[in-house]
Amino acid sequence: MNLHNIATGYVSAVNPPLIGTLQTSTGYKTNADGTRVPTYAPAVQVSCQVQALQYNDIVKLQGLNIQGVRHKLYINGKWEGIVRADQRGGDLLTMPDGTLYLVAMVLENWPDWCSVAVTEQVPQ
To answer: What is the pTM of this model?
Structure first.
């Protein structure tokens, strides 16, 4: 049973979901000069419920020493944060206003949905 789908109906009444574009990291390619460039799977649209981080979420993120603007998102599906040891993660999420976020950490992971901490990225 997907409890997130049940709760979304009630939460959406006060905090409507946003449709974002998610790019799943597939690793990187190495250019002829030796520099690495990240690669991504084709982008998919996802419905995101943006919420403020709770105290426990902030404590988890402090251990990562990540600075910047951060939010908590509830997203249908299974997404990954950064796992440097396994060279995984680095998914990017573009919001409707064009703001780009990096999925920094998975806070909750369930079969049908997850909550993730995202960090705003500087436009390039």
So the answer is: 0.75
Cβ atoms of 7 and 115 closer than 8 Å: no
Write the CATH number for 115: 2.40.10
Structural domain span for residue 72: 3-8+17-27+44-120
Residue 99 lies in a domain: yes
Number of domains into which the chain is organized: 1
Encoding tokens for residue 24? 């799943």
Q: Can you tell me the distance from the alpha carbon of 120 to that of 26, in angstroms, rounded to the nearest whole number?
A: 20
Contact 42, 34 (CB under 8 A): no
Q: What is the DSSP string of 62-100?
A: HTTT--S-EEEEEEES-----BGGGTB---EEE-TTS-E
Specify if 34 maps to a domain: no
39 lies in a domain?
A: no
Helix, strand, coil percentages (3-state) for the chain, rounded to 5, are 15, 45, 40
Beta bridge mates, 96: none
pLDDT in tens, 69-105: 788 888 887 776 666 666 667 889 999 999 999 888 8
